[in-house]
Design goal:
The protein has 478 residues and is an all-alpha fold. Helix content is 78%, strand content 0%.
Length: 478
């Protein structure tokens, strides 16, 4: 038995080496696109609510507390969704639940559009958020476990970069509807309902993807491991012929029944008991919390922020201004991050992004008369967006998909994503109060302070993972 086990381990190591050495293939691009469509929807649903609230202020006249809850509730429930789906994906497999979160997301978006009152909108946005949160750990991990080590940063970044399309399409659709003769009540409902469409389209596409080779291997499913690995390797040009994989066709799989039962809490305990994984988990989670506090607070509150510097502009003009910032500052940042992630490395990109974010937010907060200097404000605001995307917004998503062992990878990513969404919830909830208290000075100074904290946290607690295999990063033996 020992010789069989050693033989299997040797062959598995050989296959993983080939997967790590593999160039980007057509199947990699397919997985990236399917995974990324969830983030298009996530961005659309999370950021369009700022425009919707600008309409509802005249329709339903919500108070400050209700406004904060509507814009932030989905972020709070996203933390729950990330924890729940992240842990279940480690227990049952990425493929078995991949797409289920899309159905939850779609149902929440459609139901939100039919809300009869503020209370119902808050409740239904909560359901929407669970689906959004669930998409983070599963999509990131599937891509990271398929990608080669020299292209993993780019591919996982591109999954996340689909947010850029959502950031642009949201304001674009809103602007198109605002110039029609539709009532504002119809406009905001249509805006929310559109968010239900993309998840339904990609649901069946997602179900067609193999279980990841690394997860199958960790569960002793050698035949599934072989099949998934062959699908990737045979889709490229590097490996051809009968020696594609050194794996005999008659090698029997290990039965699932041989495994010990795993409880829901076991994955959390495994990460907590290992000092290295606990350090990585703490660093990744806190960095994501800080980043999302600043980023979501600014983005979801952007209509209010733009109103502060241009109070007489129409909602349409403010929406188009938001669109221009997203299109010419945020979107390029996503793709520069993807291009440079495997060249520069995660750690330097995250530190640089946090540092420039801090400088831009501090500038907005401290420049005298910024409220009346629209060009100066827009320049600083655009810089903050570019370096958020080319910086911690990308790296905080990538890091947790690389730092942990395969059987705790989506659990760890779920914890980090949940921490991020808690930071987003706090930021979105507090920004309206900070704006009402002392305008842009208070809100942007808070964002600057947490960005500075992000620089030091990254330097002290997170490693560089560029060009390393997932097993090497986590210190995991095959």
């Amino acid at each position: 038995m020992a010789s069989i086990s050693e033989s299997r381990s040797s062959r598995a190591a050989s296959v993983l080496e080939r997967l790590d050495a593999q160039h980007v293939t057509s199947l990699h691009w397919k997985i990236m696109l399917i995974s990324g469509m969830g983030f298009f929807t996530d961005a659309y649903d999370l950021f369009i609510i700022g425009v919707v609230m600008s309409i509802l202020k005249d329709e339903w006249h919500p108070g400050k507390l209700e406004t904060s809850l509507i814009t932030s509730t989905a972020l709070l429930s996203a933390a729950i969704g990330a924890l729940l789906f992240g842990r279940v994906a480690d227990m049952l497999g990425r493929k078995r639940i991949y797409g289920i979160e899309c159905l939850v997301l779609s149902a929440g978006a459609l139901a939100s559009a039919l809300s009869p009152s503020i209370t119902w909108l808050i409740v239904l946005r909560f359901i929407l958020g669970i689906g959004i949160g669930g998409d983070y750990p599963v999509s990131a991990t599937i891509m990271s476990e398929y990608a080669g080590k020299k292209s993993r940063g780019m591919l996982v970044s591109l999954v996340f970069a689909m947010q850029a399309a959502g950031l642009i399409v949201g304001p674009l659709v809103a602007a198109a509807l605002l110039v029609t003769h539709l009532s504002h009540d119809t406009v905001w409902r249509v805006l929310l309902a559109i968010g239900a469409v993309p998840p339904l389209i990609v649901f069946w596409w997602r179900r067609s993807i193999h279980e990841t080779p690394r997860y199958s291997l960790s569960r002793g499913n050698h035949a599934d491991f072989h099949s998934a690995a062959r699908s990737i390797l045979s889709s490229g040009k590097q490996w051809k012929g009968e020696d594609l994989l050194p794996w005999p066709d008659d090698d029997p799989p290990v039965a699932n029944g041989d495994e010990e039962e795993e409880s829901f809490w076991d994955g959390f305990k495994v990460l907590a008991r290992n000092p290295l994984w606990l350090k990585y988990l703490t660093g990744a989670s806190l960095a994501w919390f800080l980043m999302d506090f600043a980023y979501y607070g600014n983005t979801v509150s952007s209509p209010a922020i733009l109103n502060a510097v241009s109070p007489h502009a129409s909602l349409l003009r403010q929406t188009l201004t938001q669109l221009m910032i997203f299109a010419f500052a945020a979107a390029p940042g996503y793709f520069v991050a993807a291009w440079s992630m495997d060249r520069i490395g995660r750690k330097l990109i995250q530190c640089l992004g946090f540092a420039v974010m801090a400088a831009a937010f501090a500038g907005i907060s401290l420049v005298p008369g910024i409220d009346s200097r629209l060009k100066v404000f827009l320049a600083l605001y655009a810089v903050s967006y570019f370096f958020t995307e080319f910086g911690p917004n990308a790296t905080t998503f990538i890091y947790p998909a690389e730092l942990f062992p395969v059987r705790g990878r989506t659990t760890g990513h779920g914890i980090a994503a949940a921490a991020g969404k808690m930071g987003a919830f706090v930021g979105v909830f507090l920004f309206p109060f900070l704006m009402n208290w002392n305008g842009l000075t208070a809100a942007e100074l808070a964002a600057a302070i947490v960005s500075v904290a992000g620089v030091f946290l990254t330097l002290l607690m997170l490693p560089e993972t560029k060009h390393k295999s997932l097993e090497e990063v986590a210190g995991e033996k095959i």
